[in-house]
Every structure is written in C-alpha cells, then in structure tokens.
Specification:
- By secondary structure, the chain is α/β, with parallel strands linked by helices.
- It has a single domain, classed as Metallo-beta-lactamase, Chain A, CATH 3.60.15.
- It is built from seven helices and 13 strands.
- A seven-stranded mixed sheet has the order 6-5-4-3-2-1-13.
- A hairpin with a 5-residue loop joins strand 7 and strand 8.
C-alpha cells in the first residue's frame, strides 16, 4: 500500500513544501486538500475519489477550489468530500461563497455521520483532536497494516487521541514547532518536536513521519530530528512527493 505525501507543510506554501495533502492512490483516498491538492490528478486510478477533511482551516481546504482542473483531466470522476457537518458548512458558505469563488466545484459533501464512511477503504475511524476551532484525526486498517493521520493538535502523552493511534504501524503526525517555541505552540494549538516523539513512544507506533512544518523553516531539518530520535528512533522528516510503503 503506497501513501503519498503530496503536501508536507503547514499554514502556507514555501519554495519546498505545499500545505497538507496525503493520498492513497490505490484506493482513491485523500486526506486534506491543502495547496498540494493540485498534484492529486497525477495519481487518480479510479472513477471515485474520497477526500477526508481533518478540519476547515484554509491550509487544509484551499485545494478544493482546484477541483475543476481535476475534473478536466479525469472526465466522469466523482469526488466525495467527507467532514464534520459544521466544517462542510464552512466550506460551502465561505470558501465557495460567490464573492470568493464564483462557481461551486463539482463534488458531493458527505458528513462523517453518514454510514458510507465505514464502507470506505481502510474502514476509517475518526477521532477528535484538540485544536482551535476543532479538528479530527483518522486511523485506517488495511491488509498491509495500519496507519494514523494526526494534524493540527497539541501533542501530549495524556491526550485522548493517544489511545486511538496506539499500535499503528505508521503514524503521520504534525510537527509545526521546534522545542524552544512551546509558547507559540500553546497559542496556536500546534505541536512541538519532542512532544510528538513522546506521543509516538507512548502509543507504541511502528514508524513516525513528520509533516505540517512551520513554513519559516526551510532547511532539511525543520524541527531538530536528532533530539526527536533520542526519544523515538524510528522518526523521519516527511517531504513533498515522498512515497511511503505500509
């Protein structure tokens, strides 16, 4: 099972990272629709695409305005956008407001409460995260293994989501701030490096892949990887277009 990190940055794009978008091409799943969503069209292999939104902040939904390009390259494709009802309403009313985007993109909005969610590949499990305005994470179980996607939250070993990700083979987790920026992390509802590593260790995951970095950090090591590996050795820095095997 291939997992593509189409966008590994947070808040805004920079010259090396677009914002949040993870794709499982073999099963037609996309997690979040940030600025990297334009890359999805290169990896479509079916007549249906299911986009699961963690929340509705712009760096996670702006790519939904790129759907016309996707449809132009893949005529007949049906896109379903899944999310919490209030987040879907935010997208409908604000992102697609005629004053901002004059023509509504062609897709179907589906709340997480719809029974069809459990019928999607990997039988996604949705769990709440602590973040300003609210966010959710996802856990999937495939024959090849399990993985979880956690973005836009404050990593803490006693957070309720730790039990939701326990024992997954692969954890993709946000890591916006370095350890010396903990006050900013609390202010904005994001995670510091060592706390993310501690969560991975506490949850006994197999591998940890870091995403959603501060766009002001533009080098190969945006968070202090050596220190994180002292806490959880099986940690790597995610990058745009990185391919992971589950």
């Amino acid at each position: 099972m291939k997992i593509l990190l189409l966008g590994s940055g947070g808040y805004r794009p920079n010259d090396r990272r677009h914002t949040a978008c993870v794709m499982l091409p073999e099963v037609g799943l996309v997690l979040d629709a940030g600025s990297a969503f334009y890359r999805v069209s290169d990896h479509v292999h079916s007549n249906e695409l299911h986009v699961l939104l963690s929340h509705a902040h712009l760096d996670h939904v702006m790519g939904l305005t790129y759907l016309f390009d996707l449809m132009a390259r893949h005529p007949g494709l049906t896109v379903y956008v899944h999310g919490e009802p209030d987040k879907l309403a935010t997208v409908e009313r604000h992102l697609w407001h005629p004053g901002l985007f004059p023509v509504r993109p062609p897709c179907v909005l589906v709340p997480f409460s719809d029974p069809s969610l459990t019928q999607l590949p990997g039988e996604p499990r949705v769990f709440p995260l602590r973040h300003l305005g609210g966010s959710v994470g996802f856990r999937f179980q495939f024959p090849a293994g399990s993985f979880a996607y956690v973005t836009d939250t404050m990593a803490e070993t006693d957070a309720s989501y730790v039990e939701q990700i326990r024992g997954v083979d692969l954890l993709i987790h946000e890591c916006y701030f370095r350890d010396d920026q903990s006050s900013l992390a609390r202010l904005t509802g994001h995670s510091c490096a060592s706390s993310v590593a501690a969560v991975a260790r506490e949850a006994q995951v197999g591998r940890l892949v870091l995403v959603h970095f501060n766009p002001l950090e533009t080098d190969d090591d945006p968070v202090g990887l050596a220190e994180m590996r002292r806490i959880f050795p099986a940690t790597i820095v995610g990058a745009d277009l990185m391919s992971l095997e589950l």
